[in-house]
Design goal:
The protein is mostly helical. The protein has ten helices and no strands. The protein is globular, with a radius of gyration of 18 Å. It starts with 16 loop residues before the first helix and ends in a 6-residue tail after the last helix.
Length: about 220
């Protein structure tokens, strides 16, 4: 079986200079864990796109999937920004350097920035919806039965999930523990609450009541 296709569904990684250079950049700059996860996100997102009869740009979906967790890298741990934004900005720089039109850049940036914000991406551009669909499938198992056993097994054979649950939670923790304020109001607060002693999540109600407004 080719490293760039699943036999059951013929989902392919685009054979373009942009996709090849995205693969090289991610493989060189992040961990094996994140590389394999990101590739699975592409395959699962594309399979969900077929299931949902969505017309999507495979090249943009691929870049969105491959870059979506780059902001967890050590390089960004002092940024003070959400890792999703750091990831999205890296993808934007990469795409602009390759002359991708701004509409495509916008879609990829949005797809990455919103991939941990459930309930919104599914109503947006197909590439935005499908990066999140791929992430939710691989990390959370959402829609698990929507993809056939054969397709799922093909993807995992190409990109194994070795101790994935424990290792991805560790990667999330390491990537955001230095900027806990960026987890306010989003799902990553759950990660720090479980794995960082002394972490206290932001409280939306307390923030309103303690604001400088008198009433």
């Amino acid at each position: 079986m080719s490293m760039d296709t699943t036999s059951a569904s013929a989902i392919r990684v685009p054979d373009t200079k942009l996709a090849r250079e995205a693969t090289e950049l991610v493989r060189d700059s992040t961990s094996e864990l994140i590389y394999h996860h990101s590739r699975r996100v592409y395959f699962f997102g594309a399979l969900q796109g077929l299931n949902r009869d969505l017309s999507f740009d495979p090249e943009l979906l691929y870049v969105g999937a491959m870059f979506h967790d780059l902001g967890l890298n050590e390089h960004f741990r002092g940024s003070g920004r959400r890792f999703e934004v750091d990831s999205a900005d890296e993808a934007r720089r990469f795409l602009r350097s390759h002359g991708v039109p701004e509409d495509g850049v916008r879609r990829v940036w949005t797809a990455i920035a919103l991939h941990t914000t459930p309930g919104i991406p599914e109503f947006m551009d197909p590439e935005v919806a499908l990066v999140t669909a791929g992430v939710e499938y691989d990390v959370l198992g959402i829609g698990y039965a929507d993809i056939s056993d054969a397709d799922r097994e093909d993807v995992v054979a190409l990109h194994p999930r070795l101790d994935f649950k424990r290792r991805i939670l560790s990667a999330f923790t390491d990537g955001i523990r230095s900027k806990p304020e960026t987890t306010f109001g989003n799902v990553k607060a759950d990660v720090l609450e479980h794995y960082v002693p002394g972490f206290r999540r932001g409280d939306f109600v307390r923030t309103i009541l303690d604001s400088p407004w008198t009433e």
